[in-house]
Structure formats: structure tokens, C-alpha cells
Design brief:
249 residues; alpha+beta; 2 domains; two-stranded antiparallel sheet; 12 helices; 6 strands
């Protein structure tokens, strides 16, 4: 399971800056981003159509969480007010532009007035912006908390089986330690295991290994399910986590 701050970094790794034909830039998810990351952003839009300023708030929220020591939801929630104060725009023009972009956001200014915490127009705008960002923070934190158990943590969710120094003999060395009963329990074909045991000169060596790598799964003594993953080195990876290949290469 990934810590909350690492989960925020995970989402950020799938966000990139793009440029429109008119030269303006915007934030967007990469094509390979997990669907739940897009859902996180959709929920944080609070009913608004996708827009640049909301994505900016979402990225600010993710940055705040990723740069913190928060490992779980309760720790992050304690920092929400300070994070919203730290991110508050300094310029009145920026605040006016934010609320002019979508009249529905004025509800946060109304809330600031009702709370009695605003005494001037600037106070109303700044406190309204802060309340909006605080809501985005809380939404993002809750979404990350729901998903962080499926995000790869290299400290707990993988174990090195064989280093890439073994080269083309990794399939053979691995399969030499697998017997027929174990192959059945791992949902891999014993014939493929035998082919790999025969060595890289066999014409189906790499085909058999690819099938084994794709299908192998097993449960350890603690009830954790694992699978194989090779990126040069051969790893055992927890079966329920999403592994960005860039984390292991």
C-alpha cells in the first residue's frame, strides 16, 4: 500500500502540460493514466465542466499533499487549512478572474460572508477562494485514500527474485526452482516450465517464458497474492497494485 503523499505523486506523474494552437498551455492526463485518476479530477470539478482553473487547483492540491509527510487521510486533513492559506493568490485581479470564470463559484464568497470572517471585498474574495481550494483538497485527499492501497509502493509491494546480471538464463534459473505441483498452484503450464528448464537454445524458450510471466500468480503465507514482473531484473509484485513501469526501470 502506498502512503497518501506517494499516492499524490503517483497521480501527478500522469499529468502533463500541453499547448493549444493559440499558444496557451493547459494541464491534462496522459493517455496511460489509470481511469480512477480521471475520476478523481472529475469529482474535484464539483459539477463544473473541465476547465483550466479547476485543473490548476487540483494540481496545487496534489502538489501540497505530495510535498508533505502525510501518510494517511487523517494526517492530511489536519493540514488542509494551512495548505489553502499557503496557496492563496496575492493579487485581487487573480481572485476576480477566478470567480468571473464561473458564477457558480460565488457560493464560496457567500459562505465567507455567512461565516463572518470577511470584512472587505478583498476578504470576501480571498476567503471564498480559500474555501473553494479547501474543498478541492478534501475531495482529492478522500479520493487518494480510497485508491492508495492499489498504488505500487516499491518498499513493500515488490521483491527482487533475480537480477538482470543473469541475462538470458533468468527464465531457466527461475523455472529450475519450480516443480510440477507448484506450477499447477501458480496457474502456469508445466510444459512451459519444462521448456524453460531446457535452456535458451530451445526454439520456444522465450515464448514459454512470456506465457509464464503473464500467467504466474501465487498466494503467500499471509494471504497476499503475487505475480511476476520483469524489466531486466525479475520481480515478484503484489497482484493488486498498479505498477507504472517507470518506477522499476
Amino acid at each position: 500500500m502506498s502512503d497518501l503523499n506517494n499516492a499524490a505523486s503517483f497521480v501527478l506523474s500522469f499529468i502533463e502540460e500541453k499547448t493549444r494552437e493559440d499558444g496557451s498551455t493547459f494541464k491534462a492526463f496522459k493517455s496511460e493514466a489509470p481511469e480512477w485518476c480521471r475520476s478523481l479530477a472529475m469529482v474535484a470539478h464539483d459539477g463544473e465542466f473541465p476547465n483550466d482553473s479547476r485543473y490548476d487547483l487540483i494540481c496545487k492540491a496534489l502538489d501540497s499533499i505530495a510535498d508533505s509527510d502525510a501518510k494517511e487521510e487523517s494526517e492530511a486533513m489536519e493540514e488542509v487549512r494551512q495548505w489553502s492559506l499557503d496557496a492563496l493568490p496575492c493579487w485581487t485581479a487573480s481572485l476576480l478572474s477566478f470567480f468571473a470564470e464561473n458564477a457558480g463559484r460565488l457560493k464560496y464568497c457567500d459562505q465567507a460572508m455567512e461565516d463572518g470572517s470577511a470584512e472587505s471585498i478583498y476578504d470576501i474574495l480571498s476567503e471564498g477562494w480559500r474555501l473553494c481550494f479547501e474543498e478541492v483538497l478534501c475531495t482529492v485527499i478522500s479520493s487518494l485514500e480510497e485508491e492508495r492501497d492499489s498504488i505500487f509502493n516499491p518498499d513493500t509491494d515488490c521483491e527482487l527474485i533475480l537480477s538482470d546480471s543473469n541475462g538470458i538464463y533468468i527464465p531457466k534459473i527461475y523455472c529450475d526452482g519450480v516443480d510440477e505441483e507448484e506450477a499447477e498452484s501458480m496457474s502456469i503450464d508445466w510444459k512451459d516450465v519444462r521448456i524453460c528448464q531446457s535452456g535458451p537454445d530451445h526454439e520456444r524458450y522465450w515464448e514459454a517464458w512470456q506465457t509464464i510471466e503473464q500467467n504466474a500468480e501465487w498466494t503467500d503465507g499471509n494471504g497476499e497474492e503475487w505475480r511476476l514482473f520483469q524489466n531486466g531484473d525479475l520481480w515478484a509484485i503484489k497482484a493488486n497494485v498498479e505498477v507504472p513501469e517507470s518506477w522499476l526501470f
